[in-house]
Automatic annotation (TrEMBL):
Location of the active site: H451 (proton acceptor)
Residues bound to FAD: K58, G122, D319, M325, L326, A327, H328
GO biological process, one term: 2-oxoglutarate metabolic process
Reaction(s) catalysed by this chain's protein: N(6)-[(R)-dihydrolipoyl]-L-lysyl-[protein] + NAD(+) = N(6)-[(R)-lipoyl]-L-lysyl-[protein] + NADH + H(+)
Protein name per the record: Dihydrolipoyl dehydrogenase
Disulfide bonds, paired cysteine numbers: C49-C54
Cofactor: binding details: Binds 1 FAD per subunit.
Keyword Cytoplasm: yes
Broadest EC class assigned to this enzyme: oxidoreductase
Species annotation: Aidingimonas halophila
Assigned GO CC terms: cytoplasm
Binding site for NAD(+): G188, A189, G190, V191, I192, G193, L194, E195, E211, G278
EC number(s) from the headed UniProt entry: 1.8.1.4
A GO MF term: flavin adenine dinucleotide binding
Length: 479
């Protein structure tokens, strides 16, 4: 038997590495097992998020956005740069540098905090033992008073479009196209599909998105979703709702996709196809036969509100458990679990988790939509404000979009905030903090905002809840 630890974390994604660092900070002897190896065969930390998710996608979104700015918008503000051309190889180089810096940062943090990094695949055995199979096949067994499973998720594949090297790819493959595909298909117009579709659309692909649902972004407030759909359409994304993909065929190095919509059976040909239909929990080879950790009916590790599994002392967090598949949700659960293990009282507020789609403009939201609230029988009042009436947004030459605040009609408590705008992903933190502190719309309305700032649109949306926005035709007379 090898070493004994207070805590062994399995998986070093944003759930696992944060749990491990927090546990070590709280004085617990902590190890973190990770099996991910990069192209050079080196174990890397950071999981999906840092290696093939949040970070590389944002690097490509930023570079492709800058390209569009230079091509389409610099001229409007008096900068003449000639005809810019995207250098895809260089963009990938930049992306890889960004990944390397982030990944290296986690290893450094492990060292600085005294987390023991174990390399290989971890398996939960009975009696809180973890077997680690190294990359050379050597096995070692460790004991732990507590185990935190943070094994993450993988992309869902669908039978009509089996992955086909270089032609039909998942999100990971879509981050690596060496050239800009002329005709690009994306199955799924959710968060990841919209981001990846945007990257390649900006760089020159004709992008067609096939989405089975009839509603665009149903989790976003209807007004904001509608505005987003219009803005993305204007950029050239052909988003076809209510389309069910039924099959595909590779013909002469092209992908022929069959789908059905309200008009009947159709076919469309692409040079590349991205399958972005969601992710599923990853639990392969993770649980020994007598580990006793239960899964739910959808394959997620079953946990309670505080991420306890069916085995005392064994916790699970992040994408491998219920809830939104988001890096920051995984990290928050990681901190909560480490705190609980260290004997502190800790809980998560699952009602105040922000979501962001990093399109341009960005879409960001927290809490309920107006429609959710009404469906739950809550009477609401709402306030909206367009960025076209915000001085800073106009000066930024980025005045598209609007912000909407949803408040309880009786108590004025903020129930949700939904935004489509440049940097909405930054602005939404105001909604999260407001909800976390149980603020009313009036609390925001009475707060002094810096001028000129795009944040003032949030101030105005909060003022608009009572019909008193300043830079908009007022609906009500102030008493
Ligand atoms: C293209 C894309 C873009 C995204 N963009 C965003 C975004 O902008 N914002 C956001 O919040 N989320 C985003 N996500 C989602 C985000 O990446 C995940 O929600 C997040 O990574 C989940 O963290 P996790 O720690 O639960 O799992 P993961 O990040 O998946 O990490 C799990 C780790 O566990 C390891 N592991 C699994 N099993 C074992 C085992 N048995 N032994 C040892 N190690 C094991 C894996 O190798 C992996 O490193 C994106 C995802 C994708 C694919």
């Amino acid at each position: 038997m090898a070493d004994k630890f207070d805590v062994i974390v399995i998986g070093a994604g944003p759930g696992g590495y944060v749990a491990a660092i927090r546990a070590a900070q709280l004085g617990l002897k902590t190890a973190c097992v990770e099996k991910w190896v990069n192209k050079e065969g080196k174990t890397v930390h950071g999981g999906t998020c840092l290696n093939v998710g949040c970070i590389p996608s944002k690097a490509l979104l930023e570079t492709s956005h800058k390209f569009v700015e230079a091509r389409d918008h610099y001229n409007e503000i008096g900068i003449e740069v000639g005809e810019p051309t995207p250098n895809v190889a260089k963009m990938h180089e930049f992306k890889e540098q960004v990944i390397a810096k982030n990944v290296g940062g986690i290893s450094a943090l492990f060292k600085a905090n005294g987390v023991t990094a174990l390399e290989g695949s971890g398996k939960v055995l009975s009696s809180k033992q973890v077997e680690v199979t190294g990359h050379d096949g050597e096995k070692a067994t460790y004991e732990a008073d507590n185990i935190v499973i943070a094994s993450g998720s993988v992309p869902v594949e669908i039978p009509p479009t089996p992955l086909t090297e270089g032609l039909i790819v998942n999100s990971t493959g879509a981050l690596e196209f060496e050239e800009v595909p002329k005709r690009l298909g994306v199955i799924g117009a959710g968060v990841i599909g919209l981001e990846l579709g945007s990257v390649w659309n900006r760089l020159g692909s004709e992008v067609t998105m096939l989405e089975a649902m009839d509603t665009f972004l149903p989790m976003v407030d209807k007004d904001i979703a509608k505005e987003t759909q219009k803005l993305l359409k204007k950029q050239g994304l052909d988003i076809r709702l209510g389309t069910r993909v039924t099959g595909s065929e590779i013909k002469d190095n092209e992908v022929v996709v069959k789908y059905a919509d309200a008009e009947g059976e159709k076919e469309i040909t692409f040079d590349k196809l991205i399958v972005c239909v969601g992710r599923r929990p990853y639990t392969e080879a993770l649980l020994g036969e007598d580990a006793g950790v239960n899964l739910d009916e959808r394959g997620f590790i079953f946990v309670d509100d505080q991420c306890r599994t069916s085995v005392p002392g064994v916790y699970a967090i992040g994408d491998c458990v219920r809830g939104q598949m988001l890096a920051h949700k995984a990290s928050e659960e990681g901190m909560m679990v480490a705190d609980i293990i260290a004997g502190h009282k800790a809980e998560m507020n699952y009602d105040a988790i922000p979501c962001v789609i990093y399109t341009s403009p960005e879409v960001a939201w927290v809490g309920m939509t107006e429609q959710d609230a009404k469906a739950a029988g809550i009477e609401v009042k709402t306030g909206s404000f367009p960025f076209s009436a915000n001085g800073r947004a106009l000066a930024n030459n980025a005045a598209e979009g609007s912000a909407k605040v949803i408040a309880d009609a009786e108590t004025d408590r903020i129930l949700g905030m939904h935004i489509v705008s440049q940097h909405a992903g930054e602005l939404i933190a105001q909604g999260v903090i407001a909800m976390e502190f149980g603020s009313s719309a009036e609390d925001i309305a009475l707060t002094c905002y810096a001028h000129p700032s795009t944040s003032e649109a949030i101030h105005e949306a909060a003022l608009a809840v009572d019909g008193h926005a300043i830079h908009m035709a007022n609906r009500k007379k102030r008493k």
